[in-house]
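Archive entry. Fields below.
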Amino acid sequence: MKKTMTLGELKKGMRARITAVNAATDEMTRSFLEIGILEGSPVRVVHQAPLGGDPIAVEVRGALIALRRQEAAGIDVELLHEPHAEGPES
Amino acid sequence: MSATDAPKMIALAGLPNCGKTSLFNALTGSRQKVANYPGVTVERKEGAIGLPDGRTLRVLDLPGTYSLDARTPDEAITRDVLLGKIQGEDPPVALVAVADATNLERNLGLVLELRDLNVPLVLALNMMDLARKRGLELDLVRLSVELGIPVVPTVAVKNLGLNELLAAVDEALRANPAAAPRTEWKRSDSASVRARFSEVDRVLKASTKKSGTPALWTERLDRIFLHPVLGFVVLASVLAFMFQAIFSWASIPQDWIEQGVAAFGSWVGSLLADGPLKSLLVDGVIAGVGSVLVFLPQILILFSFILVLEDSGYLARAAFIMDRVMGGVGLHGRAFIPLLSSFACAIPGILSTRTIANPRDRLATILVAPLTTCSARLPVYTLLVGAFIPDQPFFGPFRMQGAVLFGLYLAGTIAPLTMAWLFRRTILRGPKPPLLMELPTYKLPSLKGVLLGLIERAKIFLRRAGTVILSLSVLVWFLSSYPAPPATAPGPAEGGAPAIHYSYAGRLGHAVEPLLKPLGFDWRVGIALIPGFAAREVMVSALGTVYALEGDETQVEKALGERLAVSWSLATALSLIVWYIFAPQCLSTLAVVRRETNTWKWPLFLLGYMTALAYVASFATFHLVGWLWGSA
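PREDICTED_STRUCTURE:
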C-alpha cells in the first residue's frame, strides 16, 4: 500500500520517496531542487528539533538537510516501509 | 616581461563544506592575501603556488556555492568572478572544481554548471580517503570520460594529490588554450535543475562500482547533539564553557601583557626628561594602546571557539536547535550564526548575514547584531566588573564576577532577540523566513585552518590597535593636555583643579556633562565617551589617559580599575556597564551597515535606536541602584 503524504507530516524515523516538489514560491521550489530535494529521491526524517518537533532534519541524497515542517508541506512524498519490515514483494 | 609571463590565475570553486578552503590552504600554505572584492565586503582570498619548474600560479578561493544561479550576495560573487564581470578582476584561466568525494550526488551538479563555462576545468575529488573508508569504489577513468574533464583524487588535510592536481591543471591549460569562455549566465529554471541532477545520477551510476555508506559518526554524534533534551544541555554547556574559558584562560597572558606594558612604560619614562614628549609617549601612547592590547588573549580565545565550532560542523546544529527561538522572534534560522559571530565582533557577524537570501530577513539580523555582546565591550566590562564587583564565591564553582559577566552576556542575547521581535512586528513586517540549511558531516577541525584564521584576527586587531586606537589615544592625550592651565591657577597640591580641567577635553567633558549627569556620569566619563564613539574599547584607553593625566604621583602606580573603584559610586559603574549593553559606539560597524544596506538610512536608524535604548536603560539603572543602595 502506498500512501501519499507531505514531507511535513512525516514523523521521526519515517522513510519516503519524493513525488512532487511544489513549494509556495518558485524561488523556494528551486532552492529545494538545488539542495537535492527532488522527485524520485528517497528521504528519511532523521531528527526533529526540541520544542514541538520542528524543524526537522531529513537525509536526502547523502546529506542532512534542516527545514521547517511548514515549508516541508510543499513536498509530496509516498511512504516507504522499512526494508526489513516488509516482504520481498513491495 | 610580456603579459604571457605574468603569473596566471586559477580559481577553486565548490559547494560549502566541500573542503575547498582546506585545499586552498594546502596548496598555498601561508602565502595568502585576504582582501575584499571591490565595492563589496565579500572576502577575497588569493594565494600563490610555486610550480616545480619555477613558475608561479595565483590561486583564488571563491566563496562556496550550491549553484551558479546565485541566491545570496556571496554566491553572486563566485558567479560574477567566473564570468569576468567584476571590475579589475580578470577571470581565471582555469578552474578547479572541488567536490566532496563522500557526497558526489550533491557535489557534481555544480561541476556540470562549471563545465558549461568553457574554461579549462579539473575536478578535485577531495576527502577521497574518507570516501574509500566508507566503502566507496569509483571508476575514476570512467568518471573522467563521462564528465569529459580530468579527475584527480585529493586529501587536502594530508597534502595528498596536490602535485597530481597541479599537473592536471597545467595539462588542461595547455590542451585548451583557445576556448571561448562564457560571459553571460541565464538563470536555470526548475526543469533544468532537475535535468542536471538526472545527469549527475547517470554519470554516477556509470562510474560507481560500490556505493559508500553514510557517515556513521555523524549519525551517532547527532543522536546526542540533536537530542530533544541532551541537545540543549550540550549547547548550553558549550556556550558556558566558552565564556568561562575566555576569562580564566586569558587571565595569565593578560597579566603578562599588563606587566609588560607597565614595565615598558616606566622604562620609556626613565629614559626621558619630564615634559610633553614623555607625557605623550607614557600617558598617551603606552597607556592608551596598552589598555586595549590586554584584550588580545580574550579575543583570540573567543575566535578559536567560533572557528573550531564552525569547522567541526557543530555551529549548523546549534542553529537547528535554536531555530524555534530564532523563528519565534521572526529571525531567519541561519541568523543564529551571525549572532554568535557577533559575540566576537559585529562586523564578521553582519558580513555572515550574506548567507540569508531575503533582504528583509537579512536587514532584521543586521539591525540587531550590534546589540550582541561583542569583544570590544569586554574591555569595558572587565574593567568595571573587576573594579566594582567583589571577587567572592557565588554558586558552586562560579564566582560573583563571572556570574555578573554571564548576566551581561545574557542581556546581550535577550536584547537582540527582543528587538528583532519588535522590528518584525513594526518596520520589517513580513512572512516568516524559511529555513533550508545543510547540516554538514562532522569533521575534526584542521589545526592549520584554525591557526590561519586566528592569525588573521590577531592581525586585524593589532592593526586597529596600531592605527585607529593609537591615533585616538594620541588625540585624547592632546585634547586632555592642552591648553595647559594658566600659570596663575593653583596646582592640585594647593587644592586647585587638576590640569586636565583646563584642557579642551575638560571643557568638552564639562559641556556634555549636563546631558550625562542624569545617567550618573561626570565630565571624565564624558571625555572617554566621545572618542569611544569611534570604537567601544577606546573608552577604556581614554579613561586610562584621563586618569593618568589627572592623577598625582602616588596614584600613577595604581591600575585604572583600582582608581575607579575609589572615585566612582556603584550606581555610576553599573549605569556605565548598562550603557555598554546597548551602546552603538563603533564607527566600523556603522560603516559596514552602510555598505551592506547601501543607504545611510539604516546605520543612522541603528545609531538612533541603540543610543536611545542605552540612555533610557542607564538612566533607569543609575536611579534604581541609587534608590536601593542610597549611594547615588
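CURATOR_NOTE: Chain B has a mean pLDDT of 83.
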